[in-house]
């Protein structure tokens, strides 16, 4: 019911992007930093002793932002239209191949830069999720809050990552809904996070100096059977390759709001 009240609140403020929008309250908890591996600590091979970061309760969109929703944003904010956008905030791939026909109402919005995604969320009084928030929600399967040790869940993630590009994207709400009632955290698109360019930073310089950054280069420091780390490292390697102007055919976003 909380999500319903939040949706009504946004409507009152004139911030709701569409009638399909829904906010889910995510409970507070901790995210286990499986993407951080200390060179000096061999126990991390079994993901023991890794740092855990607290995550405060927050609201998250239950689905990724759609092309239709972004169309409504462009009507109100024409400076973000492809012909008007400042080239400092979007590369030549921005909105490339996007068809804003109403029939694509449920197609996820992609080919979108970090700057544009942030502007969209800001227009709703929201923001992009942090890495910790996104990874915290993405760790949940249909039945578990933390499925990072579930081999079947991890296998699905790696299979999704390995799927070849097709002629089109699936609609939002078609892949799976996790235990929080949030759709498609894996398997639909890659998603922007607010602090995407701080993947290697923990906030403690002494810790940063001990991180094995080579692990982000692939399987050189991993066995393929270590699926828990491998899936996370693929996400962080991808994020580290981005800049704020990057606009990629399968990179989209969803917004969150503080409690």
Essential attributes:
7 strands; 259 residues; two-stranded antiparallel sheet; disordered N terminus; single chain; globular; 3-stranded antiparallel β-sheet; paralog of FGE (formylglycine-generating enzyme); alpha+beta
Q: How does the overall form come out from the CA principal axes?
A: globular
Uncertain runs with pLDDT below 50, 5 residues or more? 1-5, 7-19, 38-46, 200-225
Rg from C-alpha positions?
18 Å
Strand content of the residues, in percent?
5-15%
Plain-language structure description:
- The chain is globular.
- Residues 1-5, 7-19, 38-46 and 200-225 have low confidence and may be disordered.
- The protein has a single domain (2-258), classed as Alpha-Beta Complex (paralog of FGE (formylglycine-generating enzyme)).
- The strands form three sheets. The chain has a three-stranded antiparallel β-sheet. The chain has a two-stranded antiparallel sheet with strand order 2-3.
- It is an alpha+beta fold.
- Helix 5 runs parallel beside helix 7 (227-240).
- The protein is built from seven helices and seven strands.
- The chain has helices at 2-12, 67-76, 114-123, 131-138, 151-161, 205-208, 227-240, and strands at 23-26, 29-32, 52-55, 58-61, 190-191, 251-252, 256-258.
Give me the secondary-structure topology.
Layout: H1 2-12, E1 23-26, E2 29-32, E3 52-55, E4 58-61, H2 67-76, H3 114-123, H4 131-138, H5 151-161, E5 190-191, H6 205-208, H7 227-240, E6 251-252, E7 256-258
